[in-house]
């Protein structure tokens, strides 16, 4: 039956998120069930602490103010205008309204029944993602104590969708793989493998995987005569097996294989090696996932003979990033894979440079990535920021050792520059004599930074506090990291200075949620997403983890650890982590679209959806900065 | 007596319709069930022309419920090629169409004793009444409100005839689907809410004010 009015409502809905993500036929069903409400100026739509209505609202015309009474004062928290949604969260959480809503002027609202919308949330992952993004902000309401810690975690429906979503991207593994008990003979195992035409067999005990025998084991252990075919299967199996849960993503599997250097991963019920085997994921399974497969890229990197080849491979990696972002693969995995690729490129560049020099390094050393690469948060081509540390040497050796490493670093940075990592304008590179030093010199440097924190030096030093080992000696790296944390423990005032510098980036929204755009220069009227939104979150994560002595560099990993370390602030850190992921994804897709670093965003060209998405990330920034202020008493530092 | 016998022959739906008027009706603007409707017709002649479609939506307590809206198209014997250009309803279209008797029965069931609201109600109600007459039924018993007259009340204007387009512009209502019955009903409903609200700002509006007219001719 024709429904002209519903079609008209659909026309409006489809212009705004999350309805723009819903197919027309489904949207029409929603439109048919919309109620249209008319409110006079100042008329109350719902009051704080009211029971939730059976529908949520969208502003069709006019404006709605959301307010909250706290300490006998009324705070206007937000003004919703045309196309904005409100009053949805309490419905999903099944809690009373946290805020009141009133018409700020004469207003017409569409109200959408929650029971219809619940199905949408479950069936359209993009919708739930949008909602997660817009909820990320309010995970912690500064005015509300009692709702702490129960917001994000309680969205069962959304959680469920999120899992489904990951599953959709999950690696296809072989279910019910062929197994054998450890007690049978190698020969029997080989017969089973041959019969079933498989190149590996999982050895299980009570369905729990304890080892794996592959063609390679047959070749290297039986063929060579090390073991006899009458020996027990258990004697030649490779153990322990690397296990993962069922919803392992392609990216995770690739990382795991890289890390453990194994050809097969066992999939178990709960992901541990003490639960039941449900499947096996082989190299072959992963290779089937065609296209720019990161594993193949890394293989190619390892075989690359020169910087030009590396450059070509890196350009394929950029396409990979694009594909990941388009498929909306969780940003955490994307950054991991890309960082692995960047790391592999750097390693290869070092190897090639050593070969060029023709002489092995005289002493132990390690090559660090610092800054965003150190945090493993690089998705796009950015500047190279690196440093080198070498073992302490006798004074008479020092000059020759240092010149070797400077020579090496110069060659490496040249190669990286060819690959597409521009030279660091601030010359924070291992080829700079200042950042190519012995371990004692580095310790002295950190000590100075920490003991005597003057603002100009802090800005420079911040970048070095995110340092990650790329190549070389692990002990040198650990020694350095430990000493940094030790100095900080002794000089907590340093964190206050660090906090102070961080707070110079204010939260990015002005009154009534206007974006704070750049006032002058080339990027006038653009929003600097890097320094206004991403950096404050990165900085805050760093300070809190230095405070707790955490030897973690990645911002998401830092927030996740902080949630454990400070359970009382779990929701704050969780909202920061969510916002960070969204912002990073946003910057990356912006950069890929405009073929630049994605740093400056033209607000006027953003869709409503993207503007809402961005806005939603700003509250956590404000909240975490408040927390910094209090914790590190930054106001006492002039 | 004659009336009594006549009553006997009424079809069931009409009897049900009459029954709804026996219950006491709300006298409060916020609890009254208003039905805002519009008809598209083959022309303006009450005798010769026919209803092409009826669109309607319910307004209760400043709320429009889309799921409870009414939209229906009628089969036509009379066909006026000139008006096709205005309303776009062809004699044989893809829409499901009802004959006049079925359509009127559905509409009568839908409205019950609600207060009818339309822009220039008189014409739409007379078109319905003409159709009822062809079915040997009496006229509609519902109270009615004309948004055109309501607007005149607001602005204290005397004789101007305000068409829907002019009022949409004044009240900032997007004019989609003008000249479809449902589209016009929807627009009129928004207009109705906005006019009442504006009236309220100037003075206390009582239920009865909606029906009181400034000219002696009455609403119909």
From TrEMBL, chain A:
The keyword Plastid appears for this protein: no
MF terms in GO: [protein-PII] uridylyltransferase activity
Record PROSITE patterns: CBS (PS51371), CNMP_BINDING_3 (PS50042)
SMART domains in the record: CBS (SM00116), cNMP (SM00100)
Domain CBS: 173-229, 237-297
Source organism, top-level taxon: Bacteria
Record bears the keyword Disulfide bond: no
InterPro entries in alphabetical order: CBS_dom, CBS_dom_sf, cNMP-bd_dom, cNMP-bd_dom_sf, Diverse_CBS-Domain, DUF294_put_nucleoTrafse_sb-bd, GlnD_Uridyltrans_N, RmlC-like_jellyroll
Sorted UniProt keywords: CBS domain
CDD domains linked: CAP_ED, NT_GlnE_GlnD_like
Cyclic nucleotide-binding domain: residues covered: 18-138
Any Pfam family matching the protein: CBS
Alphabetized SUPFAM superfamilies for the sequence: cAMP-binding domain-like (SSF51206), CBS-domain pair (SSF54631)
PANTHER family, alphabetized: CBS DOMAIN-CONTAINING PROTEIN, CBS DOMAIN-CONTAINING PROTEIN CBSX3, MITOCHONDRIAL
Protein name from the UniProt record: CBS domain-containing protein
UniProtKB/TrEMBL annotation, chain B:
CDD domains given in the database record: DEDDh
Record-linked InterPro entries: DnaQ, Ribonucl_H, RNaseH-like_sf, RNaseH_sf
Residue ranges constituting the Exonuclease domain according to the UniProt record: 33-201
Alphabetically ordered keywords of this record: Exonuclease, Hydrolase, Nuclease
Biological process (GO), any one: DNA replication
Lineage top rank: taxon: Bacteria
Regions that span the bilayer: none
MF terms (GO), sorted A to Z: 3'-5' exonuclease activity; DNA binding; DNA-directed DNA polymerase activity
Coiled coil: none
A cellular component term, taken from the record's GO annotations: cytosol
Pfam families for the chain: RNase_T
Subunit and partners: DNA polymerase III contains a core (composed of alpha, epsilon and theta chains) that associates with a tau subunit. This core dimerizes to form the POLIII' complex. PolIII' associates with the gamma complex (composed of gamma, delta, delta', psi and chi chains) and with the beta chain to form the complete DNA polymerase III complex.
UniProt xrefs under PANTHER family: DNA POLYMERASE III SUBUNIT EPSILON, PROTEIN NEN2
Function per UniProt: DNA polymerase III is a complex, multichain enzyme responsible for most of the replicative synthesis in bacteria. The epsilon subunit contain the editing function and is a proofreading 3'-5' exonuclease.
Protein name, entry field: DNA polymerase-3 subunit epsilon
Organism, as annotated: Lutibacter oceani
Phylogenetic lineage: Bacteria, Pseudomonadati, Bacteroidota, Flavobacteriia, Flavobacteriales
């Amino acid at each position: 039956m024709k429904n002209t009015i519903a079609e008209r409502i659909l026309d409006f809905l489809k212009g705004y998120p999350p309805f723009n993500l819903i197919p027309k036929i489904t949207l029409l069903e929603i439109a048919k069930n919309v109620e249209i409400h008319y409110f006079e100026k100042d008329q109350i739509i719902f009051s704080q602490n009211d029971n939730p209505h059976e529908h949520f609202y969208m502003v069709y015309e006019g404006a709605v103010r959301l307010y909250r009474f706290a300490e006998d004062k009324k705070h206007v928290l937000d003004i919703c205008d045309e196309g904005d949604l409100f009053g949805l969260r309490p419905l999903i959480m099944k809690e009373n309204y946290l805020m009141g809503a009133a018409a700020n002027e004469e207003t017409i609202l569409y109200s959408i029944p929650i029971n219809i919308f619940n199905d949408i949330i479950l069936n359209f992952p993009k919708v739930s993602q949008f909602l997660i993004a817009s909820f990320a902000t309010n995970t912690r309401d500064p005015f509300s104590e009692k709702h702490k810690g129960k917001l994000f975690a309680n969205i069962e429906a959304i959680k469920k969708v999120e899992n489904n979503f990951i599953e959709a991207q999950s690696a296809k593994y072989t279910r019910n793989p062929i197994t054998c008990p450890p007690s049978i003979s190698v020969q029997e195992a080989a017969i089973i493998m041959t019969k079933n035409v498989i190149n590996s067999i999982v050895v299980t005990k009570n369905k729990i995987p304890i080892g794996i025998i592959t063609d390679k084991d047959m070749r290297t252990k039986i063929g060579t005569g090390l073991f006899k075919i009458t020996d027990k299967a258990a004697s030649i199996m490779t153990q322990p097996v690397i296990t993962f849960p069922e919803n392992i993503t392609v990216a995770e599997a690739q990382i795991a294989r890289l890390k453990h250097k194994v050809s097969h991963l066992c999939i178990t019920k709960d992901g541990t090696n003490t639960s039941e085997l449900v499947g096996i994921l082989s190299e072959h399974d992963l290779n089937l996932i065609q296209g720019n497969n990161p594993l193949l890229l890394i293989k190619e990197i390892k075989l690359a003979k020169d910087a030009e080849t590396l450059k070509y491979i890196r350009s394929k990696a950029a396409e990979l990033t694009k594909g990941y972002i388009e498929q909306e693969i969780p940003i955490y995995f994307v950054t991991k894979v890309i960082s692995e690729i960047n790391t592999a490129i750097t390693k290869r560049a070092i190897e090639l440079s050593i070969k060029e020099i023709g002489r092995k390094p005289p002493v132990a050393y390690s090559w660090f990535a610092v800054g965003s690469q150190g945090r493993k948060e690089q998705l796009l081509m950015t500047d190279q920021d690196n440093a080198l540390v070498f073992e302490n040497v006798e004074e008479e050796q020092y000059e020759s050792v240092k010149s070797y490493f400077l020579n090496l670093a110069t060659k490496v940075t040249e190669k990286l520059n060819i690959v597409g990592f521009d030279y660091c304008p601030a010359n924070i590179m291992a080829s700079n004599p200042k950042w190519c030093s012995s371990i004692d010199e580095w310790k002295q440097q950190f000590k100075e930074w920490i003991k005597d924190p003057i603002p100009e030096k802090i800005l420079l030093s911040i970048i070095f506090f995110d340092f990650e080992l790329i190549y070389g000696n692990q002990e040198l790296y650990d020694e350095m990291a430990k000493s940094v944390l030790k100095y900080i423990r002794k000089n907590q005032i340093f964190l206050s200075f660090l906090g102070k510098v961080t707070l110079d980036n204010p939260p990015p929204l002005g009154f009534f949620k206007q974006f704070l755009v750049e006032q002058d220069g080339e990027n006038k009227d653009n929003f600097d997403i890097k320094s206004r939104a991403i950096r404050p979150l990165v900085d805050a994560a760093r300070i809190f983890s230095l405070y707790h002595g955490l030897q973690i560099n990645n911002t998401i990993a830092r927030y996740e650890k902080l949630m454990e370390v400070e359970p009382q602030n779990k929701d704050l850190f969780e909202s920061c982590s969510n916002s960070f992921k969204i912002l990073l994804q946003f910057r990356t897709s912006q950069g890929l679209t405009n073929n630049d670093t994605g740093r400056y965003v033209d607000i006027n060209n953003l869709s409503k959806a993207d503007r809402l998405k961005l806005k939603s990330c700003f509250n956590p920034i404000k909240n975490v900065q408040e927390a910094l202020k209090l914790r590190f008493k930054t106001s006492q530092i002039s | 007596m004659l009336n009594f016998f006549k009553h006997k022959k009424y079809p069931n739906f009409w009897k049900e319709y009459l029954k709804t008027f026996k219950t006491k009706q709300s006298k409060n603007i916020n609890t009254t069930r208003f039905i805002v409707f519009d008809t598209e017709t083959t022309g303006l002649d009450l005798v010769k022309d026919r209803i092409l479609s009826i669109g309607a939506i319910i307004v209760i307590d400043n709320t429009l419920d889309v799921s409870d809206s009414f939209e229906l198209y009628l089969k036509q014997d009379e066909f006026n090629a000139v008006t096709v250009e205005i309303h776009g309803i062809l004699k044989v279209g893809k829409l499901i169409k009802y004959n006049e008797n079925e359509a009127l029965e559905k509409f009568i069931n839908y409205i019950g004793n609600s207060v009818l609201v339309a822009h220039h109600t008189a014409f739409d109600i007379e078109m319905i009444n003409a159709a009822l007459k062809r079915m040997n039924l009496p006229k509609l018993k519902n109270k009615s409100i004309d948004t055109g007259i309501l607007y005149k009340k607001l602005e204290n204007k005397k004789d101007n005839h305000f068409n829907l387009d002019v009022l949409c512009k004044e009240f900032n209502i997007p004019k989609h689907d003008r000249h479809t019955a449902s589209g016009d009903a929807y627009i009129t409903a928004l207009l109705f809410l906005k006019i009442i609200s504006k009236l309220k700002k100037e003075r206390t509006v009582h239920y009865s004010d909606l029906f009181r007219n400034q000219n002696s001719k009455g609403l119909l």
